[in-house]
């Protein structure tokens, strides 16, 4: 079987548990969130001098047939925490360059002090440059953390991230509590700064603000909730299109990671229909049709979806890219070659190369070209 | 230009304003909901002896460039209320047979008395048979209203609707307040009854329970809210798949009207990914993969979406059908021929015929075959 190589628009790294004490002054590190399990289905979260107890959702506590929870299974691959082991894994799987999302990202919504969020993001981004990107600068593309409580803070940290060489920032799909939705003009300075700095804006699905997500229970609930995560990514893509943010900044590129890709043609058609049929009620008017903006500036990564290649060759969506979701359970670890062959053996080399390699290199031209496929 | 004919999986009829007094005893008719406009942006709703005031959303009150609100523009075509005028419109547009949704459908959520809901649905369904279906039994396929406060009532009315010759029931995409979500086993008798009666279960989008829908404001809001309506249709389709309802009733057919169609391959892939990758946490296990169930038993109608034909020829989804949404603003009234040519001129006759005519006749084999396309 030919070994196929692919870049990945969606991967994860688990930081060391004592990261904050490594990179922040002790007085600040002590204020950062940490959690403590109590019993089988609850935890206490300590953050900035306050504590609260919370029940863990069943999907987090239930053990699968292998006796592991989802989180335990997700971090089983040897490279989840160790970058040198990780590169061996990637070479074995056939993954060349990858966007690497940090795992501590969700903390920022818990902290109310903007200064603490600013300092933590600033310090972690420097750490990402030296400890992650530094290990393989032509392959590992870490996503910068962003202080999102105040737009000015996000702008300043985006500029800092660009200065130290980061190429993508990670934003949550749900705007953080206390901020306005992403279609609001208050975010305009952030989009302008990202375009100016040539910084990709990345949204990883599953980072909705809790109040905005729909939760299902009962029969089929696990699959329903899994699918539901894609809608947060679709929403932020269309907020940036319909509000005119992407229209005003035509060089700005957005990456929606792990949400699939064949929703893009559908969403483009549907936005066009609303935009045209309800035109008397639409504001703002755009320079280009919504679908054109979406196709040009929104990139979307998928793992297994067999319909994703056809979204390119049959529906004209060129900015689809593959993602491994390494090391998570929804990803392809352990079966990457099998998946790549299933996806690409029956499509043209152009389509295969675009989705495996080319689309990624539109976003990150500083990365090196993957090795030739090996027979 | 060749005149193309198509069946429509999505059309609407506006009942007479005094319908309840025509078909219910006066004491019951007086208790049915009616609304009274007060000022520019509010109304008083009277229902069953109670009254409440409610503010109307901006999209309902704003006037477009033509000086009409969305509701006024939607009901401008002559056949919106008059079935003989309607058939002339359909002939002119090139629409042959159509599913006709009633417009008073939303009232049932407002009434708390199950007996009143039962009697009103029973009476309106008889009226639909004599006054709508009766006008052109081989072309007009009215969707039965359903009393949804109690599952047993819905089952009984479905059987009544089947007895009097109706072929499809209309259910709201959001389960009514006080009932369990559609993936709950409490609905099982309804799915069993529909399969037994060979009754299509239709869900028209835009009928979410208000608490379940996401509302957008600010720039781009009109388009965002338009797109948002599709998610209610996608959710109910996947609730019926993942809960096992369609797996247990393999002859049951579901129609999602007006929500587009090219979301189906995407949703199928995503359900399969969750079902397989989270298999240790999934319940119930299904006899077939979720995507296979979705492709086989869920039918979806679209109006303008240029990617919809490719969802058939490139992604293998055979149950896509066209819909006019007559007489609404989101539909093709006035430009049906232009739309049909744009959609189908460049695809094979097999694909064109399937989407325009064949898929519809899978659901409603009692309708007559559309005329041959006229050159």
What are its keywords?
homodimer, 375 residues, alpha/beta, eight-stranded parallel sheet, 15 helices, 11 strands, 16% strand, globular
Largest interface: A-B, 72 and 72 residues
Mean pLDDT of chain A: 93
Give helix and strand order of chain A, one letter per element, not per position: EHHEEEHHHEHEHEHEHHEHHEHEHH
Helix content of chain A: 40-55%
Q: What's the arrangement of strands in the largest beta sheet of chain A? A: 1-5-6-7-8-9-10-11
Strand content of chain A: 15-25%
User: Which structural class fits the helix and strand makeup of chain A?
Assistant: alpha/beta
Integer-rounded radius of gyration of chain A: 20 Å
Number of strands of chain A: 11
Envelope shape of chain A: globular
Low-confidence stretches of chain A: none
- End-to-end distance of chain A: 7 Å
Could you describe the largest sheet of chain A, including whether it forms a barrel?
A: 8 strands, parallel
Question: Describe it for me?
Answer:
2 copies of one chain form a homodimer. By secondary structure, chain A is α/β, with parallel strands linked by helices. Chain A is about 40% helix and about 15% strand. Chain A has 15 helices and 11 strands. In chain A, the strands form 2 sheets. In chain A, strands 1-5-6-7-8-9-10-11 form an 8-stranded parallel beta sheet. In chain A, strands 2-3-4 form a 3-stranded antiparallel beta sheet, with no helix packed on it. In chain A, strand 5, helix 6 and strand 6 form a beta-alpha-beta unit. At the A-B interface, helix 9, helix 11 and helix 13 of A face helix 9, helix 11 and helix 13 of B.
